[in-house]
Amino acid sequence: MQSSLLHILIPVMAFMLNIVTQVLLYRLIPKTGLLKSIFICFIFVLILLIGTEILFAGSHPLDSNALSIIVSNIIIYFTLGYCYFHFINLGETARRIRILRELYSATDGLSTEEVLSRYNAREIVNKRISRLLHSGQVIEKDGKYYIGQPILLVMAKIIVLLKLLFLGKESEFSD
Amino acid sequence: MNILFWTAILIFLSFSIQLIVWKIHLPKRQTLFLLFIFFTVLVFGLFSIKFFFHSDSILAVNAYSEYLHISLFFISLTLAYMITYSAIEVDSPSLVMIKTIGSAGTNGLEAKFFDKIMNDDLLIMPRLQDLLNDNMAYYKNGKYFITRKGCIFARIFIIYRRLLNASEGG
Description:
By secondary structure, chain A is mostly helical. In chain A, 73% of the residues lie in helices and 5% in strands.
């Protein structure tokens, strides 16, 4: 089986369906939560995608090329879904986007003090600590923080390793 | 099998070139340079496949739709990598906090500790500088103003968050 234009359209259409269903779900049932709505719609469309691929391949012999197309399309859908998750996450947590939005709303510009009065380190830390406590990644006991679930800690360690590989330092502020 | 094979080869090649370039000299605008490397490899790679692997070869790509499929696969992987790379380029406050709490181990970390180390100079000022470097904002007479490019960027997120009925974020 050779790749056709229809094969290319399948993961793109699936990705678009993922966005539409996620927006609809979150708007209609807001208490689902942003993260959960992304996850539910991603899985729902993934099942549809796999079903479509199987139906589509059914009319052709399942040779290595057909398998390659199916695997490629599933990976494309995963990567596009991953990009969409990060796009929403950027609007949710990215500092640059938040500052940009503050500047956008101020027609006369903002001094450093005005920027900091609208958005500052204290707000950033409080929001993130509250998220980490809520998700169980961090636990608080007697006024002290401890690691709860180690998933984010493992991720942080992997990021440090990648920073050392690419940038040769552990942090953007290291010498 | 060629779509998977060639995409993997092109991604591996781009990744290797990036690593070599980064070891020689770290570019000032890393994401832009990263995109330049990956898309140059894609264009040259597709031409090389067409030129060096004729239809009798087992590794040949025979239809234009297959070239399109490789391109889509490659672009989606590149975008995902680019997004992941931003976490390497810039310190995420959540990951810094987790790492600091993790380093404290079983002794735990005083809740007030973050007030001392996570300040505006560390969390806000570098990001304001990023906006200036990326021409999304400019500084004039002691004030920061948004540029046209910054407006477009901000509008995308504002519209999308309105579409979702989501809060301010940050």
